[in-house]
Design brief:
heterodimer, A: about 250 residues, mainly alpha, MetI-like fold, 10 helices, about 0% strand, B: about 260 residues, alpha/beta, Rossmann fold, 2 domains, six-stranded mixed β-sheet, three-stranded antiparallel β-sheet, 9 helices, about 35% helix
Amino acid sequence: MVLNFKKNIAPFLGLILLWQVISMSGLVNPMFLSSPLETAKEGAKLFSQGRIFIDLGYSLFRILYGFILAFLIGVPLGLILGYYGRIYSYLESLIDFFRSIPPILIFPLALLIFGIGEESRIAVIFFGCVLILILNSSLGVVYSRKVRINAAKIMGAKWYQIISRVVIFDALPQIFVGIRVALSMGIIIGIVTEMLVGAKYGLGSRVVYAQTAYNTPELYFTIILVGLLGFAANRILIVFENRVVHWKHAA
Amino acid sequence: MSGIDVRGVSRRVKLPDGRDEIIFEDFSLTVGDGEVVGIFGPNGCGKTTLLNIISGIVKPDSGEVSIFGRKPSDKTIAYIFQDYQSSLFPWLSVRDNILFPLSIKRVKKSEMEEKLRCLTDLIKMPFNLDKYPYQLCGGQQQYVSVMRGLISDPAIMLADEPFSGLDYTNSMWLMEKISGILRKIKIPTIIVAHDIEYLFYLAGRACFLAGKPAKIIREKHTNLDHSKEDSLDYLGLKEAELELRKYYAEKGVYS
């Protein structure tokens, strides 16, 4: 079950109730805290005008583009690095170094190289995601059971069969950890780059516009929407993971 | 021609503290065609290393291993690992686990099914092949790895403590099964065990391994008559084990 009422929905309802009580009590200036009702109204307006779909579409496009590119390159690279443990040991501190750089910090550099268009944003999302994916995929291989590789070798498996038929599967649980962390990271980076410069559309730029226009309900609504986006992405991945890695809880 | 021929094999390993340890020096062992040899010895005496050398996973520093006169890599080997959970592929169903050795050789699907049918005609599978390994109990999982070893008509079988991860009921069940299989499929087999009972039950000859470098310090032919219910006692099993434990204690190799 994806959502359980008591555990997943009730806390949200409780929070909304508390929020309504606080905003009705008049303790907080409505400029800082719009009521849930106002926020919902503003949301409905944004949806009916269709504006929010454009923003959502732009944000999702950038995030998924960068993430999928990172996935296609990071996972195979990580698997190979992990399989050839010696190469991994040489590159480990290098990967760790690049991982220690907050990805958003290279945004100015990306702007310099790729200009103000989509490429620079996608490049930063890619950079943030790819290292996480490389690291987790290679760790998945490093932690995998050597016995299985030996078993496959004795059966006469070639090196590429060992990677494609054994190593990938053994590393899958850890690859999924990488996917979840990388996608969260991708969402954060994507939104932040939209807040910085030059994005006309995107949830990040919507938040900035709302703030400059003193439109507090829109501000709150967009923040909640971004939160829900991350939350949903994680939930969907967990369900998908439980389907694919069906042996995880048993083995 | 003997089935498994280990001739003058030496193997040393580097210990974590940097010292060299000689595991085998000029070690020889011959297993005849259809013979089942059990190997018993204290932990760390090199039993698993011996199987790894025979299977070709580990290369000896010197000496030679041949299987029916050929290199190990030229022959199909059924290898049963001690840890069945780590050696089976949990992402594949029992059927696909058993067929794995054939599928990597790109055997046709119809041919694979035919082989599986022949094997299951010969050896009964007491569970559903569409289940996943983790849905079976330990003894059944280890049985699956035996079947996986047998599907590709192996020249020899090597089993590394196949019972040690199992509880008593499961080991007894599996031992009965393996004993039945060995009577039907007569291939040279080496079974390593730390429990001497299993060896006497399954093997025609038991070798006792000890020392650094490891040597076969004693050999015992069992000629077990499986029809006798009291055959284990008949062999004077307990007596032999006590005698050996005493021997190991004196040599300081068995705790």
